[in-house]
Amino acid sequence: MERQIAYIALFAALIAALGFLPPIPTPIGVPVTAQTLGVMLAGTILGAKRGGLAALLLIVLVIIGFPLLSGGRGGLGIIQGPTAGFLLGWPIAAFVTGLVMEKWRSGNLFLIAAVASILGGIIVLYSLGVLGLTINTKLSAKEALIGSLIYIPGDIVKAIIAGFITQGIAKARPNALLSRAQR
């Protein structure tokens, strides 16, 4: 049990640490950050439940005021800004990424982790992010979706990186890949 809690805290810290890399501003108000790579890795390495909890832990810390988002942002106000759908979607994205990892048991691990990251960390996350943009801005759903397309190439690169990192961890420390642990 303690090990599970430590992994959840470690990956919440990893997602936060990736926020220290400078964000790249965009026209729609949602910056490009490295933190979604951490969300993808939480799912591919920890699995659905633990990965989702790691992202949720970070979001709770941010909402109560810790400046753990890129650019040193934090506080309750994040749920009213343009990034709200993306941020609040992180636990769901990590969960879906981890669920794909847990269910897809055979095949090339790099490919499985990359596809899981694309499904959870891009498709699911963008769905929630676009919804948040339409709620918290004056953008229509179409405008929010079109504006979000600029992130896809970078997020595909992040999914590929997550695939390589996950495969490397599986080779170096197979027992650390909790998403593949036998139940």
Automatic annotation (TrEMBL):
The keyword DNA-binding does not apply. One of its GO terms (molecular function) is biotin transmembrane transporter activity. It is found in: Cell membrane. Keywords: Cell membrane, Membrane, Transmembrane, Transmembrane helix, Transport. One of its GO terms (cellular component) is plasma membrane. Pfam families: BioY (PF02632). The keyword Membrane applies. It is a multi-pass membrane protein. The chain crosses the membrane at residues 5-22, 28-46, 53-72, 78-101, 108-129, 149-170. Belongs to the BioY family. This is Biotin transporter. It comes from Cohaesibacter celericrescens.
